[in-house]
Amino acid sequence: xxxxxxxxxxxxxxxxxxxxxxxxxxxxxxxxxxxxxLEPAEDNPFLxxxxxxxxxxxxxxxxxxxHSRTLQQNKLLQPSLFQHxxxxxxxxxxxxxxxxxxxxxxxxxxxxRFSSLLANQVxxxxxxxxxxxxxxxxxxxxxKRGISSEQSIQAEYLDELRQRYYRLWDSYxxxxxxxxxxxxxxxxxxxxDVQHMLKLIDGWLEGNPLPGSPxxxxxxxPSDLPLFNFQPQ
Length: 233
Description:
Layout: E1 9-15, H1 21-32, E2 35-37, H2 47-52, H3 54-76, E3 85-88, H4 94-102, H5 105-117, E4 127-132, H6 135-145, H7 155-171, E5 177-181, H8 191-206
Parallel strand pairs: 1-3, 1-4, 2-3, 4-5
Helix pairs in contact: 3-4, 3-5, 4-7
């Protein structure tokens, strides 16, 4: 595939914790020479404390993310002339999504003051790929990968976060959003699954979607994820 097909492209791979978004981003780095913009989760010194005691540590954890994500977004607005594809494992709009879930009162008001000042320093993606899977599968993946800061995550937290994501997609207009059920896809180990995901993404980038690929998400339409224990709102 020629590099010219990816001129000035920026895509986002989103999803809940443990759903496989960062793995897919790294595949695009390897197979499509993409430049990665990865969420600074492992660098957040408040993250483990937040999972253990959300009320106490929500504000410092959120402000760390706001600062780190803004710095990364600034770099996206000044891309390298020699880079044709940029891929991120988060969408900037999720910062507020998480803040709405974890902050309240004066802390949320202070967060809004800072975030409003940074609203215009954000790059818009060409499309968003939202990976999802049933909560029990995600919980199993979290347990299997064994990251200590994630082991206190509760299923209820993931369920509420998923609902917030779909409410975000209901009103999101900056780019098309594609929802993909990753339950039966193992691109971390299966080369056929790697190639299938690459063909899906290539098709969307080139304006020639792979037959049978997910359509852009629209609210109030039947989901292609029938095994899930939720209803997009």
